[in-house]
Every structure is written in C-alpha cells, then in structure tokens.
Amino acid sequence: MLLRLSQLKDAGQLMDLDALIWDVHTAPAPVIWRTKELFLRSSPPGSQIVAVDEDERLCGYLGFRHPMGAESNRHVWEIAVAVHPSYQRQGIGHALMNSIKGVAREKGIRKLRLRVLSSNTAAISFYKRCGFVEEGRLVGEFYLEEQYVDDVLMAVHIR
C-alpha cells in the first residue's frame, strides 16, 4: 500500500468511495457527486492523502482543509477519513491518521478536527484510539432513521 497526495486521476475512484461510504450511518446525508467538476471544486487534487494498492486501486483517503477562510483559523484543518469496506481493519485508517499528523506538523497545523455522528460508535472509538477527544456536541442535530442523532465534534492537538 502506498500513501500519497491525491491526483486528478484519482477523482473517479474518490467519488465512487464517497458514494459507497457516506450514508445515514456515517453522515447526515449521502454524498453523491453529480459531476466530476463539482467534486474537484470541493476536493481539488492534493487535498486528500490517498491509500492505493499496487494496482493504483483506491483503498481509502483522508481529506483535509481549513474549515474557514479566516487567518485566525489557519492553524486548524478539518478532516474526513474513509476506508473502502474491503480494506477496513487492516491498519489503513491508522496509517492515514499518522500521515496527516506528520503533514500537519510540517505545515504548521496545530489542530485537526472532525465531526462524527453519535450513532457511529465504531468511528468514535477509532478516533479516540487516534488521540481525538470530544470537544463539543450538537444534541439532536440530525433526524436519521427515525431517531435524533448528535453531531459530535472531536479534535486532536498536534505537537
């Protein structure tokens, strides 16, 4: 497995993985990109670390971006991580997390943050194992599958 920054050639596979991974169990709404152009506007090449196998098949990614344009917030990246179901529980998520922490240090980023549904207990457990702590919670933020679900805000500080 190789970790590298995303390239234009990865767009189709990244779009497919988003459609596969992001559903009511992992996100407030499914993520379906209508066009490649819309995807690339939101996730340009170089804005993800991708994990690919020897045949350049996408195994997972970790997207990162500044959460807002304010200069006072430039030390923070918001991240999203997705691993293809066929490659889960093989250490790819941890490798992506370790990689982004190294890149963040190099770029002077001091905090990584993310949002996760309170119903996604496996993801919360994973993030905690990666050093993330809960910083806040938007109670009953989403109504999914006939129940109210909290939006959990988590972060890790980079040293």
TrEMBL record:
<keyword id="KW-0012">Acyltransferase</keyword>
<dbReference type="InterPro" id="IPR000182">
    <property type="entry name" value="GNAT_dom"/>
</dbReference>
<dbReference type="InterPro" id="IPR016181">
    <property type="entry name" value="Acyl_CoA_acyltransferase"/>
</dbReference>
<protein>
    <submittedName>
        <fullName>GNAT family N-acetyltransferase</fullName>
    </submittedName>
</protein>
<dbReference type="InterPro" id="IPR050832">
    <property type="entry name" value="Bact_Acetyltransf"/>
</dbReference>
<dbReference type="Pfam" id="PF00583">
    <property type="entry name" value="Acetyltransf_1"/>
</dbReference>
<keyword id="KW-0808">Transferase</keyword>
<feature type="domain" description="N-acetyltransferase">
    <location>
        <begin position="1"/>
        <end position="159"/>
    </location>
</feature>
